[in-house]
Write a structure and sequence with these properties.
By secondary structure, the chain is an alpha+beta fold. The protein has six helices and five strands; from the N terminus they run αββαααβββαα. It is rod-shaped and about 110 Å long.
């Protein structure tokens, strides 16, 4: 009943990294067949790096008598699958490993990292754009302001022209 309720599966490894047993609910689909796994040398199932990580962790778990957690990936069926293993010492110098598929979590984390990088890139582009536009607007506005100020210095301007020029200068100052 406990196995039926677990979304995970359980491997039992010996000190030589052989798979002594595998416990799972009927609903869980494995990347390899049950017959292929039980009794197999873990090194034939896992990559060299993952096998080394498992062997080191099994030995550490048995020496310390404490829970050890590892995360790793497997490439199977044309895609990458990520797992977390929580190992505890088990009877007769074996280790019980509760394996949890964390592929969705890893995918979600990668999507967050990608989104963050895109947002940072967009922010840099926005800042560069604003700096450029500020420079591109400021240069001609300075010319316009200079000409407006020179024109406003004239003594013979009609009142309505002066008002229009002051309005234009105020707008240019604001811009």
């Amino acid at each position: 009943k406990i196995l039926e309720a677990l979304p995970d599966f359980i491997f039992i490894f010996d000190t030589n990294f052989f798979i002594c047993d595998l416990l799972k609910s009927a609903e869980i689909q494995l990347l390899h067949s049950l017959e292929e796994l039980v009794g197999a040398d873990g090194r034939t199932i896992f990559s060299e790096d993952v096998s080394a990580l498992y062997i080191e962790s099994i030995n550490q778990c048995l020496r310390s008598g404490k829970l050890i957690e590892i995360e790793y990936y497997l490439d199977a069926r044309g895609s990458r699958h990520y797992f977390q293993a929580r190992m505890v010492p088990f009877e007769n110098n074996k280790v019980l490993a509760l394996i949890h598929d964390i592929s969705d979590r890893v995918k979600y984390m990668q999507e967050l990292i990608d989104a963050k990088q895109k947002a940072e890139t967009a922010d840099k582009l926005k800042s560069a754009f604003l700096a450029n536009m500020s420079h591109e607007i400021r240069t001609p506005i300075n010319g316009i302001l200079g000409m407006l100020q020179l024109t406003l210095m004239a003594d013979d301007l009609q009142a309505d022209y002066r008002d229009n020029l002051l309005t234009a200068k105020g707008c240019a100052d604001n811009l």
